[in-house]
Amino acid sequence: MTYTYVIGMSSNKISFEASLTSEVIEAGKCVSCGTCVVVCPFDCLELTKEKPGLIKECKICGICAQACPRYQWTAANVENFVFGRERKPEEEFGIHRRMVIAQTTEDRISKVSQDGGVVTALLLFALKNGFIDGAIVAGTDKEKPFYPAPMLATTAEELIEAAGTRYSCSPNILALTDMLKQKKTKVAFVGTPCQIHAIRRMELAGLKRHTRPLKLLIGLMCSECFTYKGLMENHIHGKLGLNLGDIKKINIKGKMLVTTGSGVTEIPLREIKQYARKSCSVCDDFSSELADVSVGGLGLDGWTFTIIRTEKGEELFSSAEKAGVLRTKTIDDTTYAFKLLKKLSRRKRKAIAGS
Ligand SMILES: Cc1cc2nc3c(=O)[nH]c(=O)nc-3n(C[C@H](O)[C@H](O)[C@H](O)COP(=O)(O)OP(=O)(O)OC[C@H]3O[C@@H](n4cnc5c(N)ncnc54)[C@H](O)[C@@H]3O)c2cc1C
Hints:
alpha+beta, Alpha-Beta Plaits, Nuclear Transport Factor 2, Chain: A, 3 domains, 3-stranded antiparallel sheet, binds flavin-adenine dinucleotide
C-alpha cells in the first residue's frame, strides 16, 4: 500500500507519545474520535476503552498529530481552508449561507428520527439520486440499547435504522476504514463538532486517500456527550430503575426526556451533567461550524434547525427541497430556537475563553 502526503509533513515529525499521549490524552482532551488510529500509516494504534494507544512501536511520522482535532487546534486556518475567510465576530455560530427549520415529508423517517429527520431525509435523497454511494452514521450496538456503533450505511434500510440520537460518543471516523476497504468514492459523513474538526484537519493535512471520497459533512449541534456507563447504566438504569431495553427514545428539550412504552421520564439536566465527558469541557463549537450543513433540535418539536454553510451543502439541500423530500420554514432572529442557538454558541466560547 502506498501513501502520499503533502510536502512539509516530514518537517512535523513527532511521536504519538510526545504529541497526543502527553498533550491530548493525559490532559483529558481526547474525544475518542479514532482519527489517529485511522490515519496511522503503520497501523500502530488501536482505540481500546475509548482511548487510543500504541499496539506497536511508533514510527514517529507525526501524521496522527497533524490530524488530531485536539492537538494544537486553531479554527482560523481551518475556516480559511473551508470558507476562504475567517468568521466575523458577529457570525456567532459560524459562517453560513442560509438557515431554515425543516422536516421530512416521509412518515417512515419521522417515526424514527430525532427531530425533523433532516439528516436521514438528506442522506436517503443523496443515496437514491447517486450523489453518494454510502454514508457514515452511528448505528446501535445489538447487545447494548442506545450504545452507538459507527457504521458505513449503503442502503435506505440501514440509514433508517441508524436515525435518532445516541447521546454517547460514537467514533464514526473509524468507519472510514470500511469506506476505504469497500472502495466507496462518494460518501457523506455525519458527526459531532469534534469529528467534523477532525475531518477538516485531515483535509488540511492533505490526507487525500481518507478524505477524497467524502462529499458532504453533516455536523450535529452538540452541548456535550455523556459516558454510556454514567448516563445509561448508572443513572437511567441504576438510579431510575428503567430497563434500557424498554426505551424507545431519548431526547433533550430543556431536560432529558426518556420515552418508554409506559410514558416519559423527565431528568433535569443538572442531574446528568456529572456524566458529561471531560473532553467536552474544552470544546468551543456548539453548532458544528465547519460542516457543510449543521443540524440541531434547539427545543423544536418535530423540526430540525438547519444551517447551510457551504455551496455543496446548499446544492444538496436545495435539490432535496425542490424534490419535495423536505418541507421548510424560514426563521428569524426573534424565534426561541434562534436565541437558543446564539446562547449555546456563546456559552461554549466563553467557557473556553475563561478556562
Ligand atoms: C451527542 C449528541 C449531542 C447533541 N446535543 C445537541 C444539543 O445540545 N442541542 C441540539 O439542538 N442538538 C443536539 N444534538 C443533535 C440532535 O440530537 C439531532 O441529531 C439533530 O437535531 C438532527 O435531527 P434529525 O431528526 O434531523 O436527525 P436524524 O434523521 O434522526 O439523524 C440523526 C443522525 O445522527 C447520527 N447519530 C446518532 N447518534 C450519534 C452520535 N452519538 N454520534 C454521531 N452521530 C450520531 C445517526 O446515525 C443519524 O444519521 C446532539 C446530537 C448528539 C449525537
